[in-house]
Amino acid sequence: MPDSCVTVQEQARPRTICAKLVRVIVLTKSASKENRRMQVRREVATFAVFALTAISAIATPAGSCFSYGTMQSSCAPWDGPAIEIRLTTEPAPCKRVTEPYISIAVWRGLPIHAGQIVKLGAGSDAGSAARCTKEGDCKLAQSATLVFDNYQERSGAAGHYELQFKGGEILKGTFEVKWCEERVICG
After folding, report:
1. So where are the chain's domains?
2. What pLDDT, on a 0 to 100 scale, did the predictor assign at position 1?
3. What per-residue string of b and e applies to 159-172 under the rule 16 or more CB within 10 Å gives b?
4. 2-11, 18-27, 167-176 — which is least confidently predicted?
5. I want to staple 76 with a disulfide (CB 3.0 to 4.6 A). Which of 11, 68, 82, 168 is the partner?
6. In this structure, what are the phi and psi dihedrals at residue 185, rounded to the nearest 5 degrees?
7. In the chain, what's the furthest Cα-to-Cα distance?
8. 3-class SS at 62?
9. Bridge partners, 143 (sequence order)
10. How far is CA 29 from the centre of its chain?
């Protein structure tokens, strides 16, 4: 009889160990499934954050969108006639332009007409373009292209622009500006 007791204990023990092993495996698999679910949730959340960031970057160009502004008579560096355009991020009154803004001066190719393309940059004496954070704090563009899709003398203009800055930064968009009557005497 003692032999059978020993045998039973030996058999009981493997069953206990086996049962514990099965519980550990089941719990590990359950924990593994739960960990996998959590990992998938984290990956989905990370992907969603990156996707939303990418969408917002595409939807909102770097910097602000300079689509509004004013246009008025001005003077070229040699005191000849010029046109000055100030593009802003919101509609601007004639006497005071909000900051930041883009300042574009056209000295050559006047008078402006619909369909005209103005190219500014190195070797060009047609004008200048700059992005200004405030009056007197401006960063000159290395080159710029301004296209007048619509132009009405002493009324306003609409079109699109592209400015390129040192370091490869490009600023582009569409604009619609109103004419501001300003008495300017050059010379």
Report:
1. 1-60, 68-179
2. 39
3. bebebbbeeeeebe
4. 2-11
5. 82
6. -120, 115
7. 127
8. coil
9. 121, 164
10. 46
Say if CB 145 and CB 161 are below 8 A apart.
Answer: yes
How many angstroms separate the first and last alpha carbons of the chain?
A: 127
pLDDT of 32-75, one tens digit each? 677 777 777 777 656 555 544 444 444 444 456 999 999 999 99
> Do 131 and 163 form a contact (C-beta atoms < 8 A)?
yes
Q: How many CB atoms lie within 10 A of CB 62?
A: 8
Q: What is the DSSP letter of 47?
A: H
For residue 175 the two structure tokens come to 């604009």
Q: What is the mean pLDDT of the chain?
A: 80
The predicted model scores a pTM of: 0.66
Identify the CA nearest to 89 among candidates 132, 58, 49: 132
Please tell me the predicted confidence (pLDDT) of residue 31.
Answer: 60
Which residue carries 């355009």 as its tokens? 85
Distance, CA of 105 to CA of 85 (rounded, Å): 6
CA angle 152, 157, 159 (to 5 degrees): 135
Q: What span, in angstroms and rounded, lies between the C-alpha atoms of 85 and 108?
A: 14
Residue with tokens 């246009």: 71
Residue 73 is which amino acid? S
